[in-house]
Amino acid sequence: MDRIKRLAIDLLKSYKEQFGIDFAQNKKVLDEVAIIRSKSLKNELAGYITKHIKRELEEIESEKEELNQTVETIETEPIAEIST
């Protein structure tokens, strides 16, 4: 695991509720929660965190859509009659 990914995941474990999908806001949060002197390192971390959170939100949305499609399919399928 490379350095950026490892550091970003460690930060997300501790401060996930403070990060969002806005890159500039995530840079500000990094200033508050960590001491990062390198501008390029801060940008890479903020970019990875932003991408990671967006990917998680997209996965949640796709799971909701799949669930809704499954529910709609179940509701529209005719119920088979049981003959005895």
Could you walk me through the main structural features you see in this protein, from its secondary elements to its overall organization?
- The protein is mainly alpha-helical.
- It has one domain (3-74): Orthogonal Bundle (Diphtheria Toxin Repressor, domain 2).
- 74% of the residues lie in helices and 0% in strands.
- It is built from 3 helices and no strands.
- The chain has helices at 3-15, 23-33, 39-76.
- Helix 1 (3-15) packs across helix 3 (39-76).
- It is rod-shaped and about 75 Å long.
- The protein starts with a helix and ends in an 8-residue tail after the last helix.
- The model has no long low-confidence stretch (mean pLDDT 89).
Structure at a glance:
The protein has 3 helices and no strands. The chain has helices at 3-15, 23-33, 39-76. The longest helix is centred in the last third of the chain and has 38 residues, at 39-76.
Task: Note the main attributes of this structure.
84 residues, mainly alpha, Diphtheria Toxin Repressor, domain 2, 3 helices, 0% strand, rod-shaped
Structural class: mainly alpha
> What is the residue-mean pLDDT, rounded to a whole number?
89
Looking at the overall shape, the CATH architecture is Orthogonal Bundle
Quote the CATH topology.
Diphtheria Toxin Repressor, domain 2
> Low-confidence spans: pLDDT under 50, at least 5 residues?
none
> What is the first-to-last residue Cα distance?
61 Å
Count of distinct structural domains: 1
- Sheet with the most strands, sense and barrel status: none
The H-and-E topology, N to C, reads as: HHH
Using the CA coordinates, give the radius of gyration.
21 Å
Helix content: over 70%
Reading off the top of the CATH hierarchy, the class is best stated as Mainly Alpha
The count of DSSP E runs of length 2 or more, i.e. the number of strands, is 0
Number of helices: 3
Q: Tell me the quaternary state.
A: single chain
Strand content: under 5%
CATH H-level homologous superfamily name: Ribosomal protein S17
Q: Which of globular, elongated, flat, extended, rod-shaped describes the shape? A: rod-shaped
